[in-house]
Amino acid sequence: MELLSQMMQLLFSGLTLGAIYALIAVGFVVIYNVTGILNFAQGEFAMLGALTCISLVNNNVPLWLAIILSIVIVAAIGGIFERTALHTARKSSVTTLIIITIGVSIVLRGAAILIWGTQVQTLPPFTDNTPITILDAVLLPQNIWAVGISIVILILMMYFFNYTFVGKSLTACVVNPFAARLMGINPEKMSLFAVIVSAGVGALAGTVIAPISGATYDMGMMLGIKAFVAAVIGGLTNAPAAIAGAFLIGILEAFTEGLWSSGLKDVVTFTFLLLILFVKPEGLFAKASGKRV
Amino acid sequence: MLKVTDLHTHHGYLHVLNGINFELSEGELLAIVGSNGAGKSTLLGTLAGVYRPSSGSIEYKGKDITKQNVQKMVSSGICLVPERRQIFSSLSVKDNLMLGAYHRYRRDHKKVHDEYEEVLELFPRLKTMLNRPGGLLSGGEQQMLAIGRGLMANPKVLMLDEPSLGLAPLIVKDIMQILRKLCDERGATIILVEQNVKAALKVADRGCVLAHGQIVISGTSQELLNDPKVQEAYFGKMEAAKV
């Protein structure tokens, strides 16, 4: 029984981590699909979301409002980032644009040190955090929030991309940017939209994880890299696969941490990434694809 | 309706279009033929606003539209059905068609749905596969989808870049007849770019031969079909005797 409860415990924390990675990974995939850019500032959106939310709560803004406001603020920052850093350089090569995103992530981290300092800050849990016991494993309500919110957001995003006209036109930009342009779809508008959505979702991920692991100026980097690993596992272009990849990474990390050593969890994750890149670089869930000419 | 005057387009250092002049009247089907690299696709791309011309002018209904970008061209009613069809392969047939009406979807919601039905009447085959991803269609079906998607933009001038590419002769014939029907029954104005010279000239009202970025021969389709130079260049001597 001891072993089972331990396994459940690890599974729960893995799912929580996975849910957070999934939100950020979807942002990666959306931006990559629409613009062809790997946005390495993606994790910083989570950091900004978490820290903004904490500041708002410290200034007596109710928690729910603080979460919404921080999402809006970070989405706006994402929009400014796209217009100033990416849009103005849109004629440059993709490599240049990717390096720009790395630059922006450093700037955002630097700004965060100036505003919030280097101390770990905490956000109160969304609701009363009395642990719940399931099969002898202890589960915190915040973990349920994290998983639940992620699932709801991910379902909403799937719905948006597959069933709404705007979502479909975004997908069209992804599938065939040239044809999309010929239909009068403006890819630059779509790129702005993609970054805003990804930033907002990233911010939400940050506010969800802040009560669990705290928030610091440099939390974005690891979150971003892990989400990137998840996206690569999913083949970078496929959002559902990236989500599956995110949960896989989350669970893998939790089990490594619990059964082996917490110092080794990153090692295991990145070894896994390298394995994927060597063995199945098109992503773990890639289907054979072809194009009719 | 459309008047192109001394149009020049460069791709980098390459001078692709070298002074194109032609006029197109309403309800006309104009075929532009020529060999590989003659500049046919660049001409359509320039008219569609994909490429910026380096000089010259494009006039549409008396208005200068030379500098318009693609989005503006589509809203003005000039729509390009690109080479190799370029359909949205992971989206369903229905979504592909609806996205054709992107520029007016929000304004004319209802009209778009009516026209969607009309387009399906034109391509009854598509009706049986509305939910299938576009990428799973056969080449001919994809071409019909691409033309249907172009029609959904409600264009005044529809331009098609090599619709016969890679298709079986029977399907080419079907598609050419549909284009003719569009002109005759709906008063569409069409520019058809083709390497399949015979098929194109058979349905077109007028034709132009493009070579090295210039229109070298133009006239009615019949004149072109009978032109010894066209016969020799495109049909070969043996074929020429048959036409």
TrEMBL record, chain A:
Transmembrane portions of the chain: 12-41, 61-81, 93-116, 144-162, 192-215, 227-252, 258-279
Classify the protein's membrane topology as the record does: Multi-pass membrane protein
Which GO terms are recorded in the biological process aspect for this UniProt protein? amino acid transport
Highest taxon of source: Bacteria
Q: List GO terms (cellular component aspect).
A: plasma membrane
Q: Where in the cell is it found?
A: Cell membrane
Q: What are this entry's molecular-function GO terms?
A: transmembrane transporter activity
Entries under InterPro entries matching the protein: ABC_transp_permease, BCAA_transport_permease
Q: Which UniProt keywords apply?
A: Amino-acid transport, Cell membrane, Membrane, Transmembrane, Transmembrane helix, Transport
Q: Where is the signal peptide?
A: none
Q: Which Pfam families does this UniProt record tie to the protein? A: BPD_transp_2
- Record's family? Belongs to the binding-protein-dependent transport system permease family. LivHM subfamily.
Name of this chain's protein: Branched-chain amino acid ABC transporter permease
Its source organism is Ureibacillus endophyticus
Task: Read off the lineage from the record.
Answer: Bacteria, Bacillati, Bacillota, Bacilli, Bacillales
TrEMBL record, chain B:
The record ties this protein, via CDD domains, to: ABC_TM1139_LivF_branched
* Keywords assigned by UniProt, alphabetized: Amino-acid transport, ATP-binding, Nucleotide-binding, Transport
Q: Name one GO biological process term.
A: L-amino acid transport
Q: Per the record's keyword annotation, is Manganese included, yes or no?
A: no
Which SMART domains does this UniProt record tie to the protein?
A: AAA
Q: Please name the Pfam families in this protein's record.
A: ABC_tran
Family from the record: Belongs to the ABC transporter superfamily.
What's the protein called, per UniProt? ABC transporter ATP-binding protein
The record's section on InterPro entries has:
AAA+_ATPase (IPR003593), ABC_transporter-like_ATP-bd (IPR003439), ABC_transporter-like_CS (IPR017871), BCAA_Transport_ATP-bd_LivF (IPR052156), P-loop_NTPase (IPR027417)
Transport among keywords: yes
Segments forming domain ABC transporter: 2-237
Single Gene Ontology MF annotation: branched-chain amino acid transmembrane transporter activity
